[in-house]
Amino acid sequence: MLEDILSAENMRAAYQRVVSNKGAAGIDGMGVDELHAHLCENWAGIRDQLRQGTYIPSAVRKVEIPKPNGGKRMLGIPTVTDRLIQQAIAQKLSVMYDGNFSDSSFGFRPQHSAHQAVERALYYLNNGSNKVVELDLEKFFDRVNHDKLMSVLYERVSDKILLKLIRRYLQAGIMEGGVASPRTEGTPQGSPLSPVLSNILLDKLDKELERRKLRFVRYADDCSIYVSSTRSAERVLQSITTYLEEKLLLKVNREKSKVSRPKESQLLGFSFWCMAKGKWAACVAPKPKVRLKEKIRRITKRNRGVSVRQITEELRMATYGWINYFRVANCHKFLRRMDERIRNRLRAYIWKQWQFIRTRKKKLRKFGVPEWSLHKIANTRKGPTRMALILNTVLTDKYLRNMGFAPMLEYYEKNTTCLMNRRVPNGTHGGVRGRNGK
């Protein structure tokens, strides 16, 4: 298998993927733009070391990023050379394992997406499984047991040199403050190999859920199980927690793992609401809404000192990305309110730029404001927020559009894909419900 990984075709595909992903440099400071020259000079020696089993991966660079709900997420950034090798390994492992993965697993797989996971969840909810078991694995990528993961790989991978290389990648040190610390557990996020290895390990969970004929959706370490009664859900939560901790040696966060109703549950930033006739539809969970409001507030902060066109361009990039992800949810009312909020904040920003009375008079005169009211408006002591409400007849929607403002609701309606009435294709419903949801 190692020869397949090191084949010219596979390595070329891995190189193109690493370069297209760009990414930060590892501990050696080499960027992806320097990788080609480095390989031309050193690849023959690196390839020989890989074949002989003597290659030693470099330590990863530790980076901590803030999590949306507080705390920090640890990333391990490998060198670009190690990223290339890991990407080549990941490509072949994906080909080997992907065909045997569960139809209810959607994370880090080709032709699978978060939208498909939400669609599957809606299918279950609209077919009677309206009690949700939400499993939360505590720091999954930092807590994976190396011996357990390697034992799962041993079941299908027989190339001992490759297995030795993968273990070395798992145990590669973490560089922080110039000191490399050894790693005894976990597959830190940031490397191409971690998502594939996590799916290989958690496929054991998928197979156990399928053996029990449970309906579930899993995206990486985010797993929701759908059953028909509260008692069944509580029983499933307890038994699956025991399985994860005793069989897969993973830690379940008992505070966040719970049994909930659909409208209280969250899946990949989505939640659910009940329409007429008991049909469920996807909606946006509260936390992504709060994060979007905070992002808009930061972009439209009145003391930034940049042009309105730059503000609207930043808004367009931030809001369009948000809509592209949540376009499968029903969020018309929320987006209408957000558009109104953005308009008012832009008007307040413009008024703040008209700092002096003479500037205000000059600008207002161009908008056709009568002379008799210019003095009163220009000399007002009201703040920008209150003036934004007054200026809606002057700084109209048309004017803001000319300044680059693009309404979120308008873009959403052009690109929306509603999942309310869609059905999961035959043969992909992910298991048959048993009598008690087991």
What labels would you give this structure?
438 residues, alpha+beta, 4-stranded antiparallel sheet, globular, disordered C terminus
Strand count, sense and barrel status of the largest sheet are: 4 strands, mixed
Number of strands: 10
Output the strand order for the largest sheet: 2-1-4-5
Low-confidence stretches: 425-438
Order of helices and strands: HHHEEHHEHHHEEHEEHEEEHHHHHHHH
> How much of the sequence is in beta strands?
5-15%
Which class of secondary structure composition applies to the elements?
Answer: alpha+beta
Structural Rg: 27 Å
Shape: globular
Helix content: 40-55%
Number of helical stretches of at least 4 residues: 18
- Average pLDDT works out at 84
Distance between the termini: 39 Å
Overview of the structural elements:
This protein has 438 residues and is an alpha+beta fold. Helices cover 51% and strands 11% of the residues. The protein has helices at 2-5, 8-21, 35-52, 80-98, 114-125, 140-143, 146-154, 160-171, 193-211, 230-246, 286-299, 308-326, 332-353, 357-366, 371-378, 384-390, 397-402, 408-415, and strands at residues 60-66, 72-77, 131-136, 174-176, 179-181, 215-219, 222-227, 258-260, 270-274, 280-284. A four-stranded mixed β-sheet has the order 2-1-4-5, with no helix packed on it. Strands 6-7-3-8 form a four-stranded antiparallel β-sheet, with helices on both faces. α4 (80-98) runs parallel beside α9 (193-211). It is globular, with a radius of gyration of 27 Å. The relative contact order is 0.11. The model is unreliable at 425-438 (pLDDT under 50).
